[in-house]
# Entry
Amino acid sequence: MARLIVLLRGVNLGSRNRVPMPALRGLLTEAGFDGVGTYVQSGNVVLSTTKTPVQVSKAVERAIAEAFGLDIAVVVRTRSELAKVVDRNPLGKIADDPKRYQVSFLGTKPNRTVLRKLEAAAVPPEQFVASGREIYAWHPAGVARSKLWALLAGRDLGVTATARNWTTVTKLLELADE
# Structure
């Protein structure tokens, strides 16, 4: 069985897309996944399965739609893929606040047009690095007024994306190792 990290996009933000984590754990356990655990309330799940990441993504999206009536996009990474994300850490030498250092996990690799949009939106001292299906972004002044963050968090990338701060990324890797 493989350990997978399941990231739900846009849940429990204010009153929108409410998905209680205890109910989600129960739902995924009933759906046949093993060792289901969650981290904080923002839709971070670690589980074990013999299914592929694509199969898990579709199964979780379907289960959430049926149980909660919500259309939630899901991005899945294997434990090994997440470890590579943490090892890569291209902005680790400058990103000194893990709450302002984000990794956007994408459903597919972004195309050049998307990368050009991100380059135009990044205002120094903000920085980002695209690496495969992840975009690392350092927002030293926070995300509140960041055009880069607005693009990364929005739906204009043309690809499913969900972001987690560095603290969450590293904690999910720890949980995958338990």
Observations:
- Residues 83-176 form a domain with the Alpha-Beta Plaits fold (CATH 3.30.70).
- The chain has a mean pLDDT of 93.
- Strands lie at 2-8, 34-39, 44-49, 74-78, 101-106, 127-131, 134-138, 161-165.
